[in-house]
Amino acid sequence: GDSVTQMEGPVTLSEEAFLTINCTYTATGYPSLFWYVQYPGEGLQLLLKATKADDKGSNKGFEATYRKETTSFHLEKGSVQVSDSAVYFCALSDGGGKLIFGQGTELSVKP
Amino acid sequence: GAVVSQHPSRVICKSGTSVKIECRSLDFQATTMFWYRQFPKKSLMLMATSNEGSKATYEQGVEKDKFLINHASLTLSTLTVTSAHPEDSSFYICSAHTSGEPKQFFGPGTRLTVL
């Protein structure tokens, strides 16, 4: 079945460092891909999405490109802030609304 | 953006009792609602999918008689954990989806602790 694999955390960075969180997927069809963020004590929020190959999703300085050839959707940010500390989830959807999540990567940004 | 609420946000109950969790879409009609369970430092595990007016579809390994789901209207779904035990303690999250829209809107979650 479809699945999502993320790099393991926790990831600890200093403020203004470059961030990459790897995400790869396995799917039989052509899924949409998402990154969700969960801040401490809050629910999941959609961070960005891409619905087809080569699409780039971006939001709040975060970017991810849908790479069909490598089945990847890595999350990047050029300069992280303390406020970016959260758990990040990569997910895919086959179009029926059902989401399959990766295991989540905890990011901690130190001042 | 669309808002999904959950009630209660936190509940503590005794072993053997039943607990009902509500999920509401406040400003849109949700054709489908999903219920997830999140373990500490783990991903979200989809428990079931419910469509308004029909029976929920449960994922493999999820006991449908233990986790009763009702989706009586386009804005409300409920999850009832029956005869709760300590191993049912977890963070339960719902999400709402409207057909034709690729994304889901998540509720803030309900922390269940069974003593």
Give the integer mean of the pLDDT values of chain A.
93
Helix content of chain A: under 10%
Largest sheet of chain B: 7 strands, mixed
Structural class of chain B: mainly beta
Give unreliable regions of chain A as ranges. none
Most residues in contact: chain pair: A-B, 22 and 20 residues
Radius of gyration of chain A over all CA atoms, rounded: 13 Å
**First-to-last CA distance of chain A:** 41 Å
Describe the structure.
The complex is a heterodimer of chains A (111) and B (115). Chain A is mostly beta strands and 111 residues long. In chain A, 0% of the residues lie in helices and 51% in strands. Chain A is built from no helices and 12 strands. Chain A has strands at residues 3-6, 11-14, 19-21, 23-26, 32-38, 44-50, 56-59, 62-65, 75-77, 86-93, 99-101, 105-110. In chain A, a hairpin with a 5-residue loop joins strand 10 and strand 11 (99-101). The relative contact order of chain A is 0.34. With 115 residues, chain B is mostly beta strands. In chain B, 0% of the residues lie in helices and 53% in strands. Chain B contains no helices and 11 strands. The radius of gyration of chain B is 13 Å and the shape is globular.
